[in-house]
């Protein structure tokens, strides 16, 4: 491996923890798949070769967004609508960056997007931190 290559794009840190087991486990999963994608790109694989991994990542992001949406809905959060809109925009941007990466044979475009998204996602969580901790694990308020 060349010195300029790093085995992980995102190194897990305790500062990423939200102290809500379900969210923390999903975040670890997202980071793991992003890091796997990064690793294989560094090994010379192109995005076309990595479409199964890309599909898993997009599905996992969608699943994660739906989980967080469910928690916000259960907590009757005023930020629910904004969160849902942001999630849709992220998935749309994911598709755009993927298409550009495929078209230009530049898989780094997707990785740059993903790292930027991760940092923004954590910032978004800072706004919801108190709400996450109040959640009792129930998705319905009936």
Note down, in words, how this protein is organized.
The protein is mainly alpha-helical. It has one domain (16-134): Hemerythrin-like (Four Helix Bundle (Hemerythrin (Met), subunit A), Up-down Bundle), CATH 1.20.120.50. Helix content is 69%, strand content 0%. Helix 2 runs antiparallel to helix 3 and helix 3 (80-104) packs antiparallel against helix 4.
CATH topology: Four Helix Bundle (Hemerythrin (Met), subunit A)
Largest sheet: none
**SSE arrangement, N to C:** HHHH
Provide the residue-averaged pLDDT: 90
User: Which architecture name does CATH use?
Assistant: Up-down Bundle
Unreliable spans are none
Cα shape:
globular
**First-last Cα distance:** 55 Å
Text of the CATH class: Mainly Alpha
Please report the total strand number as a whole number.
0
Q: Rg from C-alpha positions?
A: 16 Å
The CATH superfamily is known as: Hemerythrin-like
**Helix amount:** 55-70%
| Structural class estimated from helices and strands | mainly alpha
């Amino acid at each position: 491996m060349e010195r300029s290559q790093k085995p992980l794009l995102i190194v897990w840190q305790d500062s990423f923890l939200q102290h809500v087991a379900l969210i923390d486990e999903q975040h670890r999963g997202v980071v793991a798949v992003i890091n796997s994608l990064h690793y294989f790109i560094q090994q010379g694989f192109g995005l076309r070769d990595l479409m199964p991994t890309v599909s898993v990542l997009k599905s996992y992001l969608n699943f994660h967004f739906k989980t967080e949406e469910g928690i916000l809905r259960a907590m009757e959060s005023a930020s629910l609508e904004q969160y849902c809109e942001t999630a849709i925009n992220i998935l749309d941007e994911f598709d755009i960056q993927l298409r550009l990466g495929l078209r230009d044979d530049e898989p780094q475009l997707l990785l740059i997007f993903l790292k930027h998204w991760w940092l923004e996602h954590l910032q978004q969580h800072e706004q919801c931190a108190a709400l996450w901790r109040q959640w009792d694990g129930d998705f319905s308020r009936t």
